[in-house]
Amino acid sequence: MINIPQLTEHIYDVVGAIFEVHKELGPGLNEYVYQEGLEMELTERNIVFERELSFHPSYHGNKMDAMFRIDFLCKGDIVVECKSVAEILPVHYAQLFNYMRLLKASCGIIANFADTTAHIGRYFLDTEMKCIYYANGKKVR
Question: Which residue, 20, 37, 39, 138, is the most exposed by fewest CB within 10 angstroms?
């Protein structure tokens, strides 16, 4: 079973960086502006990350030609997807959850910068049970 309080602590500084970017830049800009700001903030905070990480999924252990690109992979196991949209839709959550599952990343963050307050969803993957959980411990799927 996953330890959600421990994982919540693990992502704390990344979430703080996201809030700082929104505080500095404000709402409603293009998501690429926020990505660039987040790259700068993560660097300033000495948080290890890869931006626009490309990866190929595998099928039955064989690498596929298909390729995905995630906005950020922080600390080796935190997938961060940045959005600047009126509403986070089910397709956005599915994208994050699939990236987490395919990369076996224990944590996922979806950040929506469009509103006057940054909306940040925190999710955790139990690789053993193959389930995603909200930060409050409730099962997503």
Answer: 138
pLDDT per position as a tens digit, 124-136 = 999 887 899 999 9
Q: Could you give phi then psi for residue 125, rounded to 5 degrees?
A: -105, 125
Under DSSP, is residue 34 helix (H, G, I), strand (E, B) or coil?
Answer: helix
The gap from C-alpha 103 to its chain's centroid, in whole angstroms, comes to 12
Mean pLDDT of 66-92: 97
In order of start, what are the domains of the chain with their CATH numbers? 4-134 (3.40.1350)
C-alpha–C-alpha distance, residues 54 and 70, integer Å: 7
- Percent of residues, the chain, with pLDDT higher than 70: 99
Tokens of 119: 């909306």
Helix (H) or strand (E) holding 93: helix 90-103
Q: What is the β-pairing status of strands 62-63 and 49-55?
A: unpaired
Considering the entire predicted model, what is its pTM? Answer: 0.94
